[in-house]
């Protein structure tokens, strides 16, 4: 059956489409070609404009004074959007960096910025490499066959980011479950329940946990990121409980789910492209380029939303004040106008102007850490890898926000 432009637009609001690479990229390619700024009226959602070209996504990201994150930073159903708006008005909703605009965004972002600067990353790298070795060793212990996504890639970045926060290892499993429920709200296996109330309960459990953490760090400050957040002051006053908990939530969740998706997706790409695997194993100096190609290829963050504060023309389409736009990062990262042979996985791709970390003032705070983690893992794995193949069918997560593979069965030999 021939895909229509209208069907392609609707795919961007269908969580199952993001678990099916072929379907998603066929839809995005059609939109880029025939309707790069496309109005989507999906059942259950408020209308939005889908922005699918790399140049257009960058244009919107640059104009952060004209296109705001609030009040609709992520794609959600009309019902959930309304619940979130009411909670925000009451001052009890999730308000992370991705929900904020300047001047609040600039001030709040600065609280954690020093923990992700080059000097801090250099200090953290030995711990990252130690954990990378632990998880490659775990692959050996698993006896030559495992579900890489479930048993390896999801745990390594979790340990890194929660160690940076200073959380005890005894709490890591709880954080993993809550994170998977938060980002897996559209996935039948991952979600807490089907109702919006059950989805919101996940956020409230995060808040309860982090409120206890805040109280502990304020009573007894420590040398970790959690303490820096708990004791931060803005305008001479500490952050309120919801802003503090929201900061923890975005660090703990985005700080590991995105990286685990890249590691699993990167390994899958290497298995599916044995020539590129051999090329990288033979020349590990390509690793920085290969890491960015894995990030482009996987694009764990699928979209952010923006709202126009005044009328604006984009590719001849008039965006009205108050209209919402969906920035499609998987589409931008396969744009034929920017990437030569964009559907080829190329470990030596250079330049690689992917937008997986966003662009402009909202550029991902943890981008450097993500690159260090992915590089450390593959620099540990590849010299020890003797053979690898799929042992079953990979399976993606149903989502419209953050996701990747939830299953990657592999068979391998590691020294």
TrEMBL record:
<keyword id="KW-0479">Metal-binding</keyword>
<dbReference type="InterPro" id="IPR017972">
    <property type="entry name" value="Cyt_P450_CS"/>
</dbReference>
<dbReference type="InterPro" id="IPR002397">
    <property type="entry name" value="Cyt_P450_B"/>
</dbReference>
<comment type="similarity">
    <text>Belongs to the cytochrome P450 family.</text>
</comment>
<dbReference type="InterPro" id="IPR036396">
    <property type="entry name" value="Cyt_P450_sf"/>
</dbReference>
<dbReference type="Pfam" id="PF00067">
    <property type="entry name" value="p450"/>
</dbReference>
<keyword id="KW-0408">Iron</keyword>
<keyword id="KW-0560">Oxidoreductase</keyword>
<dbReference type="InterPro" id="IPR001128">
    <property type="entry name" value="Cyt_P450"/>
</dbReference>
<protein>
    <submittedName>
        <fullName>Cytochrome P450</fullName>
    </submittedName>
</protein>
<keyword id="KW-0503">Monooxygenase</keyword>
<keyword id="KW-0349">Heme</keyword>
């Amino acid at each position: 059956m021939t895909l229509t432009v209208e069907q392609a637009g609707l795919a961007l609001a269908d969580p199952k489409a993001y678990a099916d690479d072929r379907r998603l990229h066929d839809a995005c390619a059609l939109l880029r070609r025939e309707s790069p700024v496309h109005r989507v009226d999906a059942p259950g959602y408020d209308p939005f404009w889908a922005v699918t070209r790399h140049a257009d996504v960058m244009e919107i990201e640059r104009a952060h004074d004209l296109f705001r994150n609030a009040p609709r930073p992520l794609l959600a159903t009309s019902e959930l959007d309304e619940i979130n708006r009411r909670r925000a008005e009451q001052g009890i909703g999730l308000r992370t960096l991705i929900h904020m605009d300047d001047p609040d965004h600039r001030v709040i972002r600065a609280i954690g910025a020093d923990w992700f600067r080059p000097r801090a990353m250099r200090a953290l790298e030995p711990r990252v490499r130690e954990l990378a070795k632990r998880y490659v060793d775990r692959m050996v212990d698993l006896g030559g066959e495992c579900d890489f996504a479930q048993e390896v890639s999801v745990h390594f970045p979790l340990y890194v980011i929660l160690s940076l926060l200073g959380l005890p290892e005894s709490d890591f499993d709880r954080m993993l479950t809550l994170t998977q429920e938060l980002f897996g709200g559209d996935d039948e296996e991952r979600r807490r329940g089907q109702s919006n109330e059950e989805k919101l309960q996940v956020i409230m459990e995060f808040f309860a946990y982090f409120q206890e953490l805040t109280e502990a760090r304020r009573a007894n400050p420590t040398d970790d990121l959690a303490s820096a957040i708990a004791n931060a002051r803005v305008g001479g006053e500490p952050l309120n409980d919801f802003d503090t908990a929201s900061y923890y939530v975005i660090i703990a969740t985005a700080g590991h789910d995105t990286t685990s998706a890249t590691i699993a997706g990167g390994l899958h790409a290497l298995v599916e492209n044995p020539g590129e695997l051999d090329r990288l194993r033979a020349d590990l100096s390509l690793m920085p380029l290969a890491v960015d190609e894995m990030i482009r290829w996987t694009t764990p963050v699928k979209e952010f939303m923006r709202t126009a504060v005044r009328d604006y023309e984009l590719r001849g389409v008039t965006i009205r004040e108050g209209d919402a736009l969906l920035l499609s990062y998987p589409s931008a990262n396969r744009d034929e106008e920017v990437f030569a042979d964009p559907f080829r996985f190329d470990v030596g791709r250079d330049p690689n102007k992917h937008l997986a970390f966003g662009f402009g003032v909202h550029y991902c705070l943890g981008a450097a850490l993500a690159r260090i983690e992915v590089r450390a893992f593959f620099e540990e794995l590849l010299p020890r890898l003797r053979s690898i193949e799929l042992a079953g069918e990979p399976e993606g997560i149903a989502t419209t926000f953050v996701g990747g593979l939830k299953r990657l069965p592999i068979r391998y030999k590691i020294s």
